[in-house]
Amino acid sequence: MDRINPAFGIVGNQSLIYVLRFSGSKRIDSDEFCDHAQQILYDDLGSIGHFRVAPAKRENLNENFILSGKSDHPDQYIPREDNEIFVSFIIREGSDCDPISKELSIIPKELKQFCEAAELSVEQMDVRSLYA
Q1: Is the dihedral of CA 78, 63, 127, 109 positive or negative?
Q2: How far apart are CA 95 and CA 41, in angstroms?
Q3: Is 1 a domain residue?
Q4: CA 28 to mean position of chain CA atoms
Q5: Are residues 39 and 33 in contact, defined by beta-carbon separation less than 8 angstroms?
């Protein structure tokens, strides 16, 4: 993936929410995926923002849902095949971080490194059609 397209996400005043579909040849366990993503994307590579497995309902795709963390109710998430997972991300502008436009130029490089390490592929989903 070469870039994150803001038009496929939800643009706020100083934030962007977008959904990515990760897939691979093996079964993807959501807990293991989240641990791995946290370690590589955020701890090792220094990505900014937050992520959470994407919600099943469009009205839940918001900052509060993403920031509230892991749920014990997997039916709250988008149905998926065993070898894929849909993940929602949020990045925000603030006094202590770069403009969203700069972050959008960095994120694809970090995702490429993560996908290579995790043996996954990634594609951005259009929120409008995903939740149609």
Answers
A1: negative
A2: 22
A3: no
A4: 15
A5: no
pLDDT of 96 over the 80 cut = no
State phi, psi for 68 to the nearest 5 degrees.
-75, -10
CB 48 within 8 A of CB 103: yes
The count of domains in the chain is: 1
Q: Of all helices (H) and strands (E), which one includes residue 36?
A: helix 30-37
Separation of alpha carbons 91 and 99, rounded Å: 10
The DSSP bridge partners found for residue 15 are 92
Burial class (CB in 10 A: 0-12, 13-18, 19+), 18: buried
**Does any domain span residue 96?**
yes
| Per-residue pLDDT tens digits for 40-54 | 999 999 888 899 999
Residue 120 in any domain: the answer is: yes
